[in-house]
Amino acid sequence: MQAVSLILTARVLGAAGYGALAGSVALFMTFGQLSGLGSGVALVRHMARGGELYGRFAVTERIYLLSGLVLLSLVLPLAIILLGSVVPPAALASFAIAEILIAPALSPLAYRYQAQERMFLSSAIGTLAPMARLAAIASAAFLNLHDIASFAQLYLTWLVPTVAFTLYATWPRGDNSTTCNTRQAIREGLPYAISGVALTAGSELDKTVLLRLAGEAVTGPYAAAYRIASAATLPVNALILATVPRLFRASSASNTRLAAIMLATVLGYAGIAAAALWLLAPFAPWLLGKGFDKAAPLLRALCIIIVTGSLRQYITALLTTRDLQASRNVIEISGVCISLVALFALVPILGTSGAVLAVAISDTVIILGGATRVRKNNQSETLHER
């Protein structure tokens, strides 16, 4: 589905339109990670350890709504200041509402099913917003609309009823009484929100910075190539989502064994996926259409991101499930800061190659920092057991 959406969006909007879309949506997706203030991950931890569902789910959904409204009022003016000269303000407003307020309302459902290890349903919930985006671009193609403002309005038009119906149909019915109030849920979840923002910023803000510094025509081929490379890491993401509840529950010894199996799987898959993408890269311009001639060399350069991105997901998941969330936050925030500095320093000199290098540097810093922290934690637990 992601492949179809990418190809259709690139062909309908063109390289410049796709660049404007990618750079603006990246900004909203990054701040959208603050919606819910981490209460969704806290819900997974709560349920994985035997906590009740109904009341806690209602509290979590309420936090997503209220925090989304506050974020929307703060981020939209910032986006207009930064990108208003490149992207129409009406389009920015539609994307902001979609990515900060509406789409995140589905997250508690996905987290609920993840905690219950019903991964098919969790993944299905996660595909609803992309499906609405695909329906919007298909509608734009049918109506012969090729501007980003029209696409943004169509996306919001499809997304709102999709989210509303899904929440109505799947809302857990039962006793909504809970011992957890809104303040407690926020306190438990906030550390996870920081890591969510850092993770998304590290993989998304390069498009926003590139759009700001180099324009939409340069950003378009880079963003399309990056999406293809990112899609190659989705199986790793699915593996991690499936094993997180078990890692939360596992003892130290079984946790270490499971982590070792995961590492071997992640490394093996990432190497194969990167090699396959390197060989298939020359077909990218043909698939994406006019204006994407530079996508092939960019895609080959971004093969390194498949390896570093997969390892980054693995390491950060270990930090979270071993109750090292504070360390994860520090490491990931450091990685984002390094990435932003590198982007602003390298993009004016190297263009899109500078963006690739900045992302690779950031991932490497996080991988090394996280691995060091996990190793120290393992050594400490071993000494404690003795």
From TrEMBL:
Signal sequence interval, chain numbering: none
Pfam family, one: Polysacc_synt
Keywords, alphabetical: Membrane, Transmembrane, Transmembrane helix
Stated name of the protein: Oligosaccharide flippase family protein
InterPro entries cross-referenced by the UniProt entry: Polysacc_synth, PolySynth_Transporter
Organism in which the protein naturally occurs: Rhodanobacter sp. IGA1.0
Any one annotated GO CC term: membrane
Topology in membrane: Multi-pass membrane protein
Subcellular location(s) of the protein: Membrane
Transmembrane region(s): 25-44, 64-84, 90-111, 123-142, 148-169, 258-278, 298-318
